[in-house]
Amino acid sequence: MYKILKAETLAAKIHLMVVHAPRVASHCQPGQFIIVKMDEKGERIPLTICDYDREEGTVTIVFQEVGASTIKMSELKAGDSFRDFVGPLGCPSEFVHEDIEELKKKKMVFVAGGVGTAPVYPQVKWLHEHGITADVILGSKTKDMVILEKELGEVSNLYVTTDDGSYGRKGLVTEALKELIDAGNQYDEVFAIGPMVMMKFVCKTTAPYGVPTTVSMSPIMIDGTGMCGGCRLTVGGETKFACVDGPDFD
Hints:
- By secondary structure, the chain is of the alpha/beta class.
- The protein is built from 8 helices and 16 strands.
- The N and C termini lie far apart (37 Å).
């Protein structure tokens, strides 16, 4: 059993939990994910690792209520436990394996949409810990749906946008991205994590500038080990599995 040490609501139907999982915490890297199961009959739910503490043996997850299982999961409190907490799964962010001195020469921007903000945080936190401060565009529908603003603000150059203009800059993340590029920011790479349509239009925005763009794919997964084939994708004419080849793709 994997004990929940902390459970809080970040926004409407968006929840954060800190789970005691020492073996997972000791091996995970930014960009990877875990699969949780509440009980013996529970559904297997893949969730991105939002943060981890190797010394405390904890892993932080953020999830949104979208179906029966995540609604039931949202009712768990500190002191409750998960039956299974499997990971780390997937490939770490590619920059984790790059030479740090070469990485320091790069200028990167992360575009986070909605709950996609959660997987962006460990990546920019890792970069910050290695002396690299990336730009982050955090997009949300309204002010009430903005999550992890304080945490991201401490480890990045943060730009907040809301669709309705209730907080930060009014407009879409793609508009803010275009403004930053047109203002002279010569990005070496753009990372987009969020709703499929958002990532699509981030790619359309960066294409005319020729900026390499990475997106994080999260199709339905069953086992998370490449066996079921449910997360099959076509990338560059080749078949890939998001769970073992991703979740990040060009």
